[in-house]
Amino acid sequence: MQWQRRGWLGAAAAAMGSGWLSRPALADIPRMDAIGKRARPRVRKLFADAGLPYPCRSIFLRAFKADDELELWAAQRHGEPMTRVQTYSICARSGELGPKRRQGDEQVPEGCYHIHRYNAWSGFHMSMRVDYPNASDRVRGHKHDLGGAIMVHGGCATIGCIPIEDGPIEEVFLASLDGRRKGGRLTPIHIFPTRLDEAGLRELKTHPDATPDRLTLWRELQPVYEAFETTKIVPDVEIDRATGTYGLVEAAPAV
Question: CA torsion 88→68→186→254, rounded to 10°?
């Protein structure tokens, strides 16, 4: 596992450059061009098969830890119902079900985040950085050692990240990056323990990894999951800055 940890830390350090496209990515435009020429036709076909133009302005990712799945969703415009473009296999997992609460716990975070940096020169082929810790994590996690550098990346080894192998990360990276360039918004990523329908939450209640704190979080995230399942529109989520509690933003009443 030691080589895995070195590679993960290398990817993290590379992604720490200024701006949302890391310095290595900016410095290695020829590599990005080569990957784009190879992978973008695959991405265009995925979107065409889903009945969507490419690139789309709105991109959304959902990860399900127990199911080892990462979903790619897209819509032509923000606020429109989304279409599932592809489901990718998460090929390695560390930690347990439940959120990340401190550095070194090897947990994959759970909650509502965004992709906010892109690294085309990652130690794991390519990587996209998740903006963990969010406001909920800062309240509920270890106050002085939350950890960080959580990535969706290539390869098939991980310590707290979401690996989907090299070909899939090329597709997700390009779809998200091109969507951000066109739409001007961060790509949201929701990370769940499993599908939080009634059956999923019922199974979680008796899961070996369940604790009172984790069950509280999972119940908070269930309305977020159900809102998207019902509307196929990414819901607006708010976090109580005092308690770290998740909630849905209520729509303003019609005038």
Answer: 100
Question: Which of 191, 44, 174 has its CA nearest to residue 130?
Answer: 191
Burial class (CB in 10 A: 0-12, 13-18, 19+), 79: exposed
DSSP character at residue 23: H
Q: Which of 80, 54, 63 is nearest to 232 (CA)?
A: 80
**pLDDT tens by residue, 73-100:** 999 999 999 999 999 999 999 999 999 9
Contact assessment for residue 8 and residue 152, using Cβ atoms and an 8 Å cutoff: no
pTM of the model: 0.88
Q: Which CATH number does the domain 2-236 belong to among 2.40.440.10, 3.20.20.140, 2.40.30.130, 3.30.70.1280?
A: 2.40.440.10
Question: Which class for 22: exposed (0-12), middle (13-18), buried (19 or more C-beta within 10 A)?
Answer: buried
Q: Per-residue pLDDT tens for 174-230?
A: 999 999 999 999 999 999 999 999 999 999 999 999 999 999 999 999 999 999 999
Domain edges within the chain: 2-236
